[in-house]
Request: fold
Amino acid sequence: MTTASERPAGAGRPVIGITAATSAIKVAIFDMRATFTPQQFVDRVARAGGTPVLLPPLPEAASAVAGLDGLLLLAGPDVEPARYGAERHPETRSVDPVRDEAELAVIAEALRLGVPFLGICRALQLLNVLRGGTLHQHLPDLIGHTGHSPGLRDYGDQRVSLEGGSRIAKVFGSDAATVPCHHHQVVDVLGKGLRATAWSVADGIVEAVEVPDHPFGVTVQWHAEESDDDRPFLALAEAARHHRGTRGTRGNGGAGAAG
Reply:
């Protein structure tokens, strides 16, 4: 029988950090502030074979990235326009500078350490801003319709074309997909070292951005959690599992060299 000490480096479920939000909530008769992540993201990571852990929106959260095998970066409020040198549009809403700061630091650390990540909606925008890119703050001004976000709680199905050979095309095993969208902001100027790899067929809006020189740095503008398709989460878990293995190998190699 194989014991825990005999298992190869990286064996077991990869630990995947999920960015969380802090908000006022009510539990029973108590009003309080809480840090939370919607259960559907926890379930998707677990179903894909990962062990989910929550990362609170605090600057200190970035220090946890080194101990993770992967990251799932979630949707949320609009990015503060001042971060990319823009005046605030009337339709830019619910900005959270503290969360921006924390999640930008988490992404920067994942890039520095080569930790695999999958980013959803706002996460794509944060990655772009981190790399010096800019955003269109209100998509209907650009394309003349609300098809990418048809209502407060409604998702708009978008047919997207996927660049051949890109990670997102490999995830879907295709050059096209139909995805659920709910966003009113999009990439304007693409950030340094990033690559757009998916576009809305209807209007050419960028719907996925990747980091080509990163082991697995994939962000999608659509809400992958609203689809029954598990492949994006399975791909993240597989990349995290590989990172776990290589991280363990590096650690073992370092220990051997030292003594």
Observations:
- The domain at 14-140+153-250 is CATH 3.40.50.880 (Rossmann fold).
- The chain is about 30% helix and 25% strand.
